[in-house]
Design goal:
189 residues, Gyrase A, domain 2, 4-stranded antiparallel beta sheet, 2 domains, alpha+beta
Length: 189
């Protein structure tokens, strides 16, 4: 018969829980390290691509800037500058002549309420837009306000500004209309 006796002053301790915990922590740390390493690698790769793309854009910009300077030197020549001024003048004349009166009258017809009559229209080209100086007569204040609201809410007319509003003289007939002068921008689109 064998008897087990422990004659040691300290009993035998098992470090199994510590070793399992340490092993698990090491495994989690290793997985985290690999994931962070992969993230750093992908970020550096993306940064390299961005730097390469930025360098290509910078080279392209320098090339376009050089072409722009060449064209500027070309168009600053005296003979070309005169031709450019003449072309701008002719384009301005064409733009004034190409004003579509029919379309403008159709747009006015859609928003013109009863009791309003158009007295005069003067179109002007102002920096690529058509500015209309419009004079109209209105039978009363309600009709005038209705027409002004219709102009303001219209897509074709913008920036409506009333220049003057003349009260009618006492009397009957068409001369008793309120006469209103206004300016507005017209886009025939």
């Amino acid at each position: 018969m064998r008897v087990r006796l422990n004659l040691a002053t300290k009993p035998l301790e098992s470090h199994r829980r510590f070793l399992v915990g340490a092993g698990l922590s090491a495994f989690v740390a290793a997985v985290s390290f690999v994931m962070l390493g992969w993230h750093v690698y992908s970020v550096r790769k993306a940064a390299t691509e961005v730097r390469a793309r930025t360098e290509r854009i910078r080279e392209e910009y320098a090339r376009y800037e050089e072409e722009r300077n060449d064209l500027k030197r070309f168009f600053d020549q005296k003979s070309i500058k005169g031709l450019s001024d003449r072309a701008a003048f002719i384009n301005g004349i064409i733009a004034v002549r190409s004003f579509n009166w029919t379309k403008m009258f159709m747009d006015l017809e859609h928003i013109l309420p009863g009791g309003v009559r158009i007295i005069s229209i003067e179109p002007k080209q102002v920096s690529g837009h058509v500015e209309l100086n419009l004079t109209f007569g209105a039978a009363d204040d309600d009709v005038k306000l209705k027409f002004l609201r219709a102009l303001e809410t219209s897509r074709q007319f913008s920036d409506v500004q009333v220049d003057s509003d003349v009260q009618p003289a006492t009397g009957n007939g068409p001369s008793s209309d309120r006469v209103v002068h206004l300016s507005t921008f017209y886009s025939g689109a």
